[in-house]
Amino acid sequence: MKGMIIGISVILGIIIGIFPSLTKPKPNWWKAMVSVLFIINLIMIITPDLVSNLNYVNYLAVNDIEEQVLIDPSEGTITQNEDSYSITPLKYPVLKSQENSKIEGKLLKIKYNGKLQAFEIMGLENPSIIPLQYPMIVELKERIKIMVLHVPVAWTAVLAYLFSMIFSVMYLKKREYKYDIYANSAAGVGVILTILATVTGMIWAKFNWGSYWNWDPRETSIFVLLLIYFAYFGLRQSIENPDTRSRLSAVYSIIAFVTVPFFIFILPRISSGLHPGASGENTAGPVLGGGTEMLNPNLGLTFGFSMFCFSLLFFWMFNLKVRTEILDNK
Among 57, 200, 215, 83, which Cα is nearest to 136's? Predict the structure, then answer.
């Protein structure tokens, strides 16, 4: 199911992204549609509440972990007692107070009190206007939201490099200069997306691993990938003859893309490291993995929609880059 969501999202993004043309200006309705979709995507990433599964809250209580979490009491069965609420399947009561006498339709901030053997209500919140909730993970908290931004950006960068390679093959086959422009433009957008993926990954690393850069295998591999494509542009700048530049650049782009699956999908999974999905963790990470480590359905929905939106953004940026290159070469 998860693979189907990702596949459909990317395929739709490619179809709508290519329409009506790669090189002609996009119609105003297309640009307005993508802008609205992208704003919706950012709202879906940022605004949903982080709500703990009630069984997970039981785990915290049983292990006497006094961590404040947010729960949706409507997920269970509520029974009102004189001085507390019993919320099945919570194993301990939730204490009442005058400030929180009405919890219907609210989200509860609760904290386990080991001395009282009960949960205390630390506050009430109205649910987000977006009818989505993300799983609350104590170790990640709000940082889980960056995953549905960081990973789609990285995957879209792979899409950009793939198109650069395809256009390079087409140039070598047909020797039409427009394909060289397409390959160069796709690679340029790919580098921008790779830098954005690196920056969002560094933010994740700072708050999860203690520093912005840890030379984790995935961080190292994406750094090497950037060097490979920086060298691509260095090669283009160092050759004056247009035909020679286009031919050598096309060959380099094809060889460079061969390294992309290795550095993005293979190396980080065969090496031990901090990043989810590393060797020794026994999972494929939250995106590719199954079972308990798979994406929460709501996160999966947002992830797929984010993949769709960033695919559209790639084609918009690609379209602008191609048209700029054509103007510069006239």
Answer: 57
Instruction: Give every CB contact of residue 252 below 8 A, 6+ residues apart in sequence.
Output: 231, 232, 235
Q: What is the DSSP string of 191-242?
A: HHHHHHHHHHHHHHHHHHHSSS----HHHHHHHHHHHHHHHHHHHHHH---H
* Cα gap 261→275, rounded to integer Å: 17
With CA atoms as reference, report the closest residue to 89 among 123, 126, 61, 128.
Answer: 61
Is the pLDDT at 314 greater than 60, yes or no? yes
Residue whose tokens read 């009491």: 73
Q: How many CA atoms lie within 13 A of 101 on its CB side?
A: 3
The predicted structure's pLDDT at residue 288: 47
- 213 touches 205 (CB < 8 A): yes
Q: Which two tokens stand for residue 203?
A: 């933010």
Residue 77: φ, ψ to 5° = -105, 120
- The CB density around residue 119, as the number of other CB atoms within 10 Å, is 25
Whether the link from the prior residue into 276 is cis, omega within 30° of 0, is no
Phi-psi label, residue 282: left if phi above 0, alpha if psi -120 to 50, beta otherwise:
left
- At 211-255, the pLDDT tens digits run 999 888 888 899 999 999 999 999 999 999 999 999 999 999 999
Q: How many residues does the chain have?
A: 330
Q: What is the pLDDT of residue 195?
A: 97
**What DSSP line would sit under 71-139, residue for residue?**
E-GGGSEEEE-SSEEEEET-SS-EE--GGGS--TT-EEEEEEETTTTEEEEEEEEPPPSSS-EEEP-TT
> In which element (H, E) is residue 102 found?
none
Beta bridge partners, 84, equal: 95
Residues near 35 by beta carbon (within 8 Å), at least 6 away in sequence = none
pTM metric for this prediction:
0.87
Q: Which of 277, 255, 99, 122 is nearest to 183 (CA)?
A: 255
Structural domain spans, the chain = 2-48+142-328, 50-127
